[in-house]
C-alpha cells in the first residue's frame, strides 16, 4: 500500500474485528492474516481470492458466500475444480461469483460476451500461446530456461506442455458450457498472418 501512495498512518494491521471495522469506517486500509476476520467484517461487500491454492480458494469462496459476500475468483485452480458449484451456491445466496478480466480466461470471456451480445453465434473458443506447444516438457527440461528468467521450472513446464492453457480453457468451458472437442486440446503453430 505504501508503494501505491497510502500513508502508513492509514494502514491498520490487526486480527481484531472491532478494530478492523472501525478502521474501515474511518476509510483506512486494513491488513490481516485472518481470513475469518475478513469474511465477518460487515463493511466488506466483495472478497477477491488470488491465493492460487485450490483448497484455500474453495474455503474462502464458500465462507464468503455463506456470509453474503460477492466473490471474485482470480484463483483459476479453484475455479476449474469447484467453480460451477460455487456459482450455483452464490446464485442461491443472492450474491455474485465471478472471474475477472485481465488474465486469459477473463479476456476470452470478454470476447465471447461481446460476440454474443452483438448477435454472433459463437461456434468455438480458444486462445493462443506465446511459446510452441511441447507436450514432452518437464521441469528438468525447462530448468535452464526457467533459471535464466528467474522462474520456477515447474511453472515454465506447465506453460510449454499445455497444462496452464488447459486449466484456463477449462475455466472458460465451465463459464460458457462449451465442451472441449478432444482431451489435451490442440496446439498447432500459427502465425498472425495465418489466422
UniProtKB/TrEMBL annotation:
Question: What is this protein identified as?
Answer: Uncharacterized protein
Q: Which molecular-function annotation in GO is an example for this chain?
A: oxidoreductase activity
InterPro entries the record matches? Asp/hSer_DH_NAD-bd, DRL_cat, NAD(P)-bd_dom_sf
Q: Which parts of the sequence belong to the Oxidoreductase DRL-like catalytic domain?
A: 102-195
Coiled-coil region(s) at which residues?
Answer: none
Residues forming the Aspartate/homoserine dehydrogenase NAD-binding domain are: 14-77
Q: Which organism is it from?
A: Paenibacillus tyrfis
Superkingdom of origin: Bacteria
Amino acid at each position: 500500500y505504501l508503494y501505491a501512495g497510502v500513508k502508513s498512518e492509514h494502514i491498520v494491521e490487526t486480527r481484531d474485528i472491532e478494530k478492523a471495522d472501525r478502521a474501515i469506517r474511518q476509510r483506512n486500509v486494513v491488513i490481516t492474516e485472518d481470513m475469518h476476520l475478513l469474511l465477518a467484517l460487515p463493511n466488506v461487500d466483495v472478497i477477491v481470492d488470488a491465493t492460487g491454492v485450490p483448497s484455500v480458494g474453495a474455503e474462502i469462496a464458500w465462507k464468503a458466500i455463506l456470509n453474503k459476500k460477492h466473490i471474485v475468483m482470480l484463483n483459476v485452480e479453484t475455479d476449474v475444480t469447484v467453480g460451477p458449484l460455487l456459482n450455483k451456491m452464490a446464485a442461491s445466496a443472492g450474491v455474485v461469483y465471478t472471474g475477472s478480466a485481465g488474465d486469459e480466461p477473463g479476456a476470452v470471456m470478454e470476447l465471447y460476451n461481446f460476440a454474443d451480445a452483438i448477435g454472433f453465434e459463437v461456434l468455438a473458443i480458444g486462445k493462443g500461446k506465446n511459446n510452441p506447444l511441447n507436450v514432452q516438457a518437464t521441469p528438468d527440461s525447462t530448468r535452464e530456461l526457467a533459471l535464466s528468467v528467474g522462474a520456477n521450472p515447474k511453472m515454465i513446464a506447465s506453460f510449454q506442455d499445455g497444462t496452464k492453457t488447459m486449466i484456463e480453457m477449462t475455466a472458460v468451458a465451465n463459464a460458457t458450457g462449451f465442451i472441449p472437442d478432444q482431451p489435451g486440446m490442440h496446439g498447432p503453430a500459427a502465425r498472425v498472418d495465418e489466422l
